[in-house]
Structure formats: C-alpha cells, structure tokens
C-alpha cells in the first residue's frame, strides 16, 4: 500500500509540473503568433502596430488597459480586443495555449 501511495503522489507531482509548464506559455511560439498576420483569422500581425513589441513593455504589471479609448480589464481582454478590432480576427479562448503563448511573449518585453 505504501508503494502505491508513493507512486500516486509521484504521478500527481509530475502532472502538476507539466500542467504549470503548459499554462505558462512558450515565448518563441508567442513571438511567432505575434508576427503572424493570420493569427486568430486576422488580416495583419500584432507586430504591424507594435513593431518589436513597442508600447507593450511592462504589460505584465498592468491590470487595466486603455485601447482605442476603451478600457480592457486584464491582458487577455486586451489581446482579444486587438485581435478583433485591429487585426479583424476572432477572439480566442483566454485559457487557450495560443493565448498563454502570446502573453508569455508580451511579458518577455520588459524593457
């Protein structure tokens, strides 16, 4: 019984580690999405308005964004607002891997 508990605990630990890694997002994949004009069915890349990430520095520290005169609560809302209004795409699931990846890239723009 003790071996079973240890195996179960080990499996749970490994699962949690992988789930946190998945949720964190991949900066390189996020950068690719940021530069893809077809991301989320859009017509232009995020990089066309935010060349090299300009204007997005320190976004990870904000809780509120003012985009085109409209307030967005949270970075996921801000990303989807830009996808829909600037890129003419379709909003993506805020909990999707694509959202996690693009946010990971945006958060990497610290300077």
Task: Give the secondary structure arrangement, pairings included.
Blueprint (H helix, E strand, L loop, with lengths): L1 H23 L2 H8 L11 H4 L14 E4 L2 E4 L1 H11 L11 H11 L4
Antiparallel strand pairs: 1-2
Helix pairs in contact: 2-5
Structure overview:
It is a single chain. The chain is mainly alpha-helical and 111 residues long. Helices cover 51% and strands 7% of the residues. It contains five helices and two strands. Strands 1-2 form a two-stranded antiparallel sheet. α2 crosses α5. The longest helix is centred in the N-terminal third of the chain and has 23 residues, at 2-24.
Number of strands: 2
The arrangement of helices and strands along the chain is HHHEEHH
Strand content: 5-15%
Shape, per Cα inertia axes: elongated
The total of helices stands at 5
Summary, kept brief:
With about 110 residues, this protein is mostly helical. It is built from 5 helices and 2 strands.
Please name the defining characteristics of this protein.
two-stranded antiparallel ribbon; single chain; mainly alpha; 5 helices; 7% strand; 111 residues; 51% helix
